[in-house]
Specification:
Largest sheet: 6 strands, antiparallel
GO biological process, one term: proteolysis
Organism: Crucibulum laeve
Strand order of the largest sheet: 1-11-10-25-26-12
Structural class: alpha+beta
InterPro entries: Aspartic_peptidase_A1, Aspartic_peptidase_AS, Pepsin-like_dom, PEPTIDASE_A1, Peptidase_aspartic_dom_sf
CATH class: Mainly Beta
GO molecular function: aspartic-type endopeptidase activity
Oligomer: single chain
Family: Belongs to the peptidase A1 family.
Length: 483
Amino acid sequence: MGYLLPALAYLILLGSFVAAFHFDAKEHAPYPVDPLRHLHPAGQQLNLRAPKSKGVFLNNSVDLGYYVDITLGGKPFTVLIDTGSSDLWISGRVENSTDTGTRSGVTYAVGGVEGPVKTALLQFGGFTIPNQAFMEIPSDDKSKEGTGIIGLGPNSGSFIYRQLESITGAPVLDRIFHQNTTTPNYFTILLGRDQDPTDFFSGSITVGEILDQYSDILREPKVQMTDVPSYQSGDQHLQILLDKDGIIAPDGSRISIQTSVKHAATEQATVVLDCGFSLPQVPRAVSDAIYGRFEGAEYVTIDKVGGTWIVPCDQEVNVTFLFSGKEYRIHPLDMTMEPHLIGLESIKNSKGERSCIGTFQPFSYSRDIINYDMILGMSFMRNVYTLFDYGDFVLGFNTTKDPYIQLLSITNATEAHSDFVTVRLGGLDTTGSKGLIEPKKTNSASSNPRTVYYIIAGVVAFMIILVAIYFIVRARRRSARRR
């Protein structure tokens, strides 16, 4: 990473892009640790009203983490949901558990944690799973007892499964689908927005069923998940292809995007959907195209965040993503973040204007193996109801079925604009007074065909003059010799 994480609340920092002690980092490319996650531990969650329907309610920790209650070994725990990892991790002693005799762990930019792999009876979302494998981390002042992470990613990313090499070591969702063969092997996620003045819910997760009021998701395109090479299976994530140049910038133009995934079968960008990552990670060129043309926008380095754009907090930023030809608008309250959410009193640009953090951040860590172009985290996922179908990712299934993702847009442009005016502008709409800075015009000769022609003509004329001078000098020398 380009910055070091403080050695705080390691367990709350677990989740996306972690690296196991016992495996080659080249085989299992490490996910980064989200630097914002430790700032609002589980004890500071906001339990807002969720939609009245099926599923399990989530607790929203000021848009930086979404938590669900589980029972493990008869004891309650509050764990972060994370589609970017695959294992269950718990801080604190789990009663009525069985030690497998193996250990595992994760490392961070600063320090790390490890603990024994155990099994215990798990109750989650109405399902009961006997002998669920998990890693138990001793609780201390750096990892709060009673918290943890439940990984919802594919089993190929499970470090515990690789340790135990049996169905007992499989991730939670694999165990559910394996023992409940009549349950459709998909799950859905709906994330609430902390500052939303019109939609008051914190979030919900379902397994094998759909939230009634969002049943239209079943009519959305099935976007097939992409595979990583078999020798990099440990870096397989819930990832799909963005449409070609599939981001509409604030000025209405399509952002040019080139994939960096060498094994990709197409030029389209590969994106990971990760509900455990606070700030989406995108190429620098994409972040520049989103934020760089606003008056007062500046690229800065922020403590605990890293390099990112800041823009005046009263600037509305509108961006749309495209998948399978469908548009998914991002709420302007998700495009920038107020500094107090991450414990900063204020941020000002060089003009002294109160500024907010651009949430679509240029990659804040280095990647030795590139299997994806972007991580679309919470700021993106709050704008869609998402269905993840595991397909043949599930252990023990003999059927072949391509895994896919369906996305239902839940952000209305008119309502989103009204929300922004209410929250950021105090109800007084001044957005019409703001515009975009004109892009810098290039002065290069290649940008003007006439200039190119003039240069070529000049070069040719100069060469002709040189040749003429050569022959004149040569003729004079011959004349002098004859004399």
